[in-house]
């Protein structure tokens, strides 16, 4: 079983430090596990506790110390990052406070599962000012409501299992021409997406929790448009009325859905 122990250094909550310090991971333990780098100096720790990573960073909420002891960070990202010079991966955290300010590669976030009740709502507010210099931002919120204003700007943004409220796309910072992938999201409408939309738009859904409304979908898409539904019930297919469907698609159109 995963332990509920958390780290006991100055960067972490303290719980009976003297009794736990021998078994809790230090900052260095975490960095040795999370950092992938070919450089001799793999990270720099600044006086304020901020850490720059000279390579790729990959960390899960469930951490194995010395290949033996399993630690659970209780969903809170455990350190404070500045610049990550490679890709940044964070898995199963529901609070990204401490996430990097600059990611020179891609940013990949997969949160705890809130849809099944195993985790609280996901807090990604710390990502609002994150600069992603790579092309891809991938965020899987596992059922949590997404405030698109907190999604870093990028040329490709992939959102998976997020609940996106009405008019929320107006705050999305997709660089154009770019690519937006919406996979298995609950989407109230598409109001706020740029029109014309310059790039690729891919919408894929797997569940019939609600019929997908295409209200606000751009009337002109200057690129490929993929609308795929794997629902077994044709009554749950997206609403394809002409007043909501794009008038012009300059690239390829892909429509896959069940026909009764």
Give a verbal description of the structure.
The protein is mostly beta strands and 260 residues long. 5% of the residues lie in helices and 34% in strands. The strands form four sheets. Strands 1, 4, 8, 10, 12, 13, 15, 17, 18, 19, 20 and 21 form a twelve-stranded mixed sheet that branches. It has a five-stranded mixed sheet with strand order 2-3-7-9-11, with no helix packed on it. Strands 5-6 form a two-stranded antiparallel ribbon. A hairpin with a 3-residue loop joins strand 5 and strand 6 (69-72). It is elongated and about 60 Å long.
List the helices and strands and how they pair.
Elements: H1 17-20, H2 27-34, E1 35-36, E2 43-45, E3 51-53, E4 56-60, E5 62-65, E6 69-72, E7 81-84, E8 88-93, E9 102-103, E10 107-111, E11 131-132, E12 136-140, E13 154-160, E14 163-164, E15 174-183, E16 186-187, E17 197-205, E18 220-222, E19 225-229, E20 248-249, E21 253-256
Parallel strand pairs: 3-7, 4-8, 7-9, 8-10, 9-11, 10-12, 12-13, 13-15, 14-16, 15-17, 17-18, 17-19, 18-20, 19-21
Antiparallel strand pairs: 1-4, 2-3, 5-6
């Amino acid at each position: 079983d995963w332990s509920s122990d958390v780290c006991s250094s100055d960067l972490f909550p303290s719980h009976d430090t003297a009794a736990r310090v021998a078994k809790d991971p230090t900052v260095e333990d975490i960095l040795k596990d999370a950092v992938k780098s070919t450089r001799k100096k793999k990270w720099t720790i600044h006086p304020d506790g901020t850490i720059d990573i000279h390579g790729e960073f990959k960390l899960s909420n469930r951490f194995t110390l010395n290949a033996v002891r399993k630690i659970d960070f209780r969903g809170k990202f455990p350190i404070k990052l500045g610049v990550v010079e490679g890709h940044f991966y964070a898995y199963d955290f529901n609070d990204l406070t401490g996430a990097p300010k600059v990611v020179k590669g891609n940013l990949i976030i997969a949160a705890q599962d809130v849809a099944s009740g195993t985790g609280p709502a996901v807090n990604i507010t710390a990502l609002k000012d994150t600069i992603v210099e790579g092309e891809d931002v991938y965020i899987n919120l596992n059922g949590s409501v997404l405030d698109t204003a907190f999604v870093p700007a990028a040329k490709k943004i992939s959102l998976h299992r997020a609940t996106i409220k009405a008019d929320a796309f107006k705050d999305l910072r997709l660089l154009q021409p770019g690519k937006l992938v919406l996979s298995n999201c609950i989407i109230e409408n598409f109001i706020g997406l740029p029109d014309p939309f310059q790039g690729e738009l891919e919408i894929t859904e797997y569940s019939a929790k609600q019929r997908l409304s295409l209200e606000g979908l751009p009337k002109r898409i200057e690129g490929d448009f993929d609308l795929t539904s794997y629902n077994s019930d044709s009554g749950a297919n997206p609403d394809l009325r002409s007043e909501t469907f794009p008038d012009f698609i300059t690239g390829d159109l892909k429509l896959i859905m069940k026909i009764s």
